[in-house]
Design a protein that fits this description.
Distance between the termini: 48 Å
Number of strands: 9
Number of domains: 3
CATH class of the largest domain: Mainly Alpha
CATH architecture of the largest domain: Up-down Bundle
CATH topology of the largest domain: Butyryl-CoA Dehydrogenase, subunit A, domain 3
Length: 398
């Protein structure tokens, strides 16, 4: 679908000009960032939002969108000197248009660009950062495994063995975003010599790297998650020098959980957009349904969830700017806001009646994607237990 062509249903659910918007937070940005955010949001609503529906239906990745996203600077927000609040609002703006693409760009900035920029060697940075920043290249963050998700820190089974040729990496990874189309994979493996988990850059065209797309997902259908098999030998200098133990990932994973909170903000803005437009256009019993008490109550609840979510993320961005964000606060934001987004998605789907089940009307599409963000980057319950541990001083899991 050309970027300027709208789905027939998307055209009918264009958000009204009076819609409540998370962009109210943009008043806290410097004028240049405020203007940039407005340009990004408008461009994504005009292009990405309508162009994402058919690829979502088909579980296809629309490669042609990448140059436009790169031109908006969305491949380098981690490294372009922008404020934490701008980065968060930009992430929300992408999620407002499509959550799958926001997942790709969030992982790209927080976990690919961020890992190489903070933990890579000068040579690794010189080789990969320019291509990543322009979205000319994509990376895959290979941490989760078939048998180890929530317990990955202690259970990671992929091995790294030092050889005369460099490092031999062997194992399997699962749920790896863009694993089938990435140019480089950041692979986390356990060094057999000291049992420490370390990070390695593995070219995806290296012999012994293979990726199989995970099909039939009900959410994030554009994101090409993959099962990855590894039996590769890479040079000694492929190790990330700053990633000599799993603790090196703490800051990255903490920021990534905060970023998912911004996804929840953008998702709820999209839900409110869809609900508001549909309610103003759909007629039953001779009048638009936005005049019905039940519909107004649903709109009010989603607007309240959205406003509470945006306020929590504004505070999170402030903590990040002051260098005071903790894993407890990041986990609380991720757990709380994805829970609210899940509730908002159910309300939105119901408010569209039967049409809420059809992806063309977008509520079902967004609801499916919200189920994914509720689960990834640490499941809802694991993040809740991290908060509980901080509050009580007692760990409920090993």
């Amino acid at each position: 679908m050309p970027l300027t062509q709208q789905s027939p249903r998307a055209a009918a659910t264009t958000p009204p000009a009076t819609a409540v918007t998370f962009l109210d937070l943009a008043r806290h940005l410097e004028p240049a960032e405020c203007e940039r955010l407005e340009r990004i949001d408008q461009q994504l609503q005009a292009t990405l939002r309508p162009a994402s529906i058919e690829p979502w239906n088909q579980e296809e990745f629309p490669q042609k969108l990448l140059p436009g996203l790169g031109a908006l600077g969305l491949g380098e927000t981690f490294a372009d000197g922008s404020s934490h609040l701008f980065q968060g609002l930009a992430s929300a703006a992408v999620a407002r248009a499509d959550i799958s693409i926001s997942a790709l760009l969030g992982i790209h900035n927080e976990l690919i660009l961020g890992t190489i920029a903070t933990l890579g060697s000068a040579e690794q940075k010189q080789t990969w950062l320019p291509r990543l920043r322009s979205l000319e290249s994509l990376g895959a963050f290979c941490l989760t495994e078939p048998e180890h998700g929530s317990d990955i820190a202690g259970g990671l089974a992929t091995t790294a063995r030092r050889t005369a040729q460099g490092w031999h990496i062997a194992g399997a990874k699962r749920w790896i975003g863009v694993g089938t189309i990435a140019d480089i994979a950041i692979v986390w493996a356990r060094d057999t010599a000291d049992q420490q988990i370390k990070g390695f850059l593995v070219p995806t065209d290296a012999p012994g790297y293979s990726a199989q797309k995970i099909s039939n997902k009900t959410g994030l259908r554009i994101m090409q998650n993959a099962d990855v098999q590894l039996d590769v030998t890479i040079p000694a200098n492929a190790q990330l020098p700053g990633a000599s133990s799993f603790s090196a990932t703490n800051e990255l994973l903490m920021s990534s959980r905060a970023w998912v909170g911004w996804q929840a903000v953008g998702a709820q803005q999209a839900l409110l957009d869809v609900m508001s437009a549909y309610a103003g256009q759909r007629e039953q019993f001779g009048r638009p349904i936005d005049s019905f008490q039940l519909i107004q109550a649903k709109l009010a609840e989603v607007a309240g969830n959205l406003t509470a979510s945006a306020a929590m993320m504004a505070d999170t961005a402030d903590l990040q700017a002051r260098g005071e964000l903790t894993m407890m606060r990041a986990s609380m934001a991720k757990a709380t806001l994805t829970r609210l987004a899940r509730s908002s998605a159910a309300i939105a789907r119901e408010s569209l009646g039967g049409n809420g089940l059809v992806s063309d009307f977008e509520a079902a599409k967004i609801a499916g994607d919200v189920e994914a963000i509720y689960t990834y980057e640490g499941s809802y319950h694991i993040n809740s237990l991290i908060v509980g541990r901080a509050l009580t001083g007692v760990s409920a899991f090993i």
